[in-house]
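Try it yourself: sequence plus zinc ion, in.
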Amino acid sequence: MRQAARLWQPAAILPALWLAGCAAPAAMGPLPATTAALPPGWFRAAQATTPACEGAGRRVHAGFERAALAGCRIDADGHVHVTVAPESRPINPSPWYGFVVASERPDETPVTLHYDGGKHRYTPWQAVPGGVPALLAADRVNIAADRSAATLRLPPAPAQLVIAQPPETVERVLAPFEARVRAGQLTRVDAGHSRARRPIAVYHHRPANPRGTVVILTRQHPPETTGPQAFATFTDMLLGNSRAARAFRARHALMIVPLVNPDGFVMGHWRHNLGGVDLNRDWGPFTQPETRALAGAIDAEAARGPILAVIDFHSTFRDVVYAPPKPADTDLGEAMLQAITADLAGADIRIDRAHNPGNGVLKSWARDRFGVGALTWEVGDDSPADRTQRLATAAATALMAQANK
Ligand SMILES: [Zn+2]
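Structure, out:
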């Protein structure tokens, strides 16, 4: 099966102790809105791949974009067992899984996820042909007391997708920006290629004589979904048709990177790229093609004019913004942070002003290299989509207001 091609080399990185993802999981809350139905033919294509396991009238397929399982077997009674394991170790615990279960039987399909190297984190999403993907109902998910396994009770269906987060593809992730390229609003200049030669798409807006550039990135870590939702709202605001957005774009350049780690995203990785490295510990060492390419592109942008702010969207167990202290009153990152803080007075968000230079994190590198506000914005795995949208809107509004002064 395809996962056999994974690289299992140990990660040559600093210990991943800085990540908030080490914290205990938060209580479940409302989850992001569902996405569009998978296109016609998607299930047929997935089912045309060689099964990862089959028996008792059932088959499991994992030969499609974002699929991941480390192994599977089917008991004589039709109970499916899937092993979920990381692409390399050590690793932060973001156990990703994605597979299609096909069944010729009229009964429900029990599926047990066995976690190797992590605990149950993501509530499964489920989709059937023609249907809108949705969270599997809570009464169909039985999590082991130690969270080392979860047993799902799948409704009868000839085929269904089970995946750790709403299904996304590279095409869908880039689609909003490609549409703006076709409309003449943005220019795409790939920074380079990933280890597996997938392009690293960078979208530029550049007016005549800009004051400088705001750099916005996401998806260094493949499973993270709520952070990219904040990124989507944030970039939509900056690229929108409001008076503030038009004034902002008249005097500021933008550099937007929707998918920093395309290989990890496509391969269904927990965290790393194909080199077994956490890319957000590689800004400084620059051992990987993705970080080297993007640092080169940002440096090239800096050669044309000042970098004004760098904002990197992620997801973890709760809402937290890492914003090393800099900067002057006029700093855009600081203005955004003030907007978020004001909007969330008394709400559950943490603002962390610590600065750990040399830790290989993008925001630390950017802050020290360009001397500007650089944020890592982590959105909780289970943060309600409307709250995330409200925060991202407030932050983009604050950034534009500050920049337009
Ligand atoms: Zn992350």
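One thing you can check immediately is this: Residues 220-221, 224, 314 surround zinc ion (CB under 6 Å).
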